[in-house]
Amino acid sequence: MSKIIITNDFISVFEELTSELGAANVRLFGAERFGLDEAKAAVNEAYIAENSLKTIVLHGEFYGIEAQNALLKILEEPPRNIDFVVVANSKSALLATIHSRLSCEIRRFKKERSELWTLEFATLDLKGVVEFVRKFEKKEEITKGQLLNLLKTIVEEALASGIFSFCESDYFYFAKLNKLCANNVRPTAILTPLLLLLLRRKNELF
User: Residues 38-42: contacts with CB within 8 Å, 24+ apart?
Assistant: First the structure.
């Protein structure tokens, strides 16, 4: 069933959706500023016929009014086997007309900022990546819980920063790293590829 989810932890919600529905059945359309281009792309995806349920996830720090108006009809009458999940940081980010068409869940996840957090995205370079990762060369220097908290903090603040240009596959990769945190994977094996990805996406944007 189509719905709105209000949360400050998009990564956890996205991981839950892909785990529950299957990654192959989820399509993500997200941007810091969700505009008309993203809305049109999501609508086009919805009209691609499916024999089984496909869930289209929309996510933005800010939703443009034009974009929301472009979604109204399809949210009210989605094609066969299509569900929408609209994810926002606050109820006020969405128009009343969007709320009137979908049920709304509120999932606030309070997380503490890790004491190990010392990254500066604006000045992040290869040297900074190496120096940061070296802090975690010994597994005993960070617990699973701390590593998970650190990973989520890095990803969520990177998404909110506007410094990086992410694509759909990146969100699936973030969810995969999230799962690896619980499997005794060395911290460096999680943090190194994550930070290198951020560095690559930063270079692509600038």
Answer: 38/67, 39/66, 39/67, 39/68, 39/70, 39/71, 40/70, 42/71, 42/84
Tens-level pLDDT at each residue, the chain (206 residues): 899 999 878 888 888 899 889 999 999 998 888 999 999 999 999 999 888 999 999 998 889 999 999 999 999 999 999 999 999 988 888 999 999 999 988 876 655 555 556 788 888 899 989 988 888 876 556 777 788 888 888 888 888 888 888 888 888 888 888 888 877 788 889 999 999 999 988 877 65
- Nearest Cα neighbor of 124 from 159, 153, 164 is 164
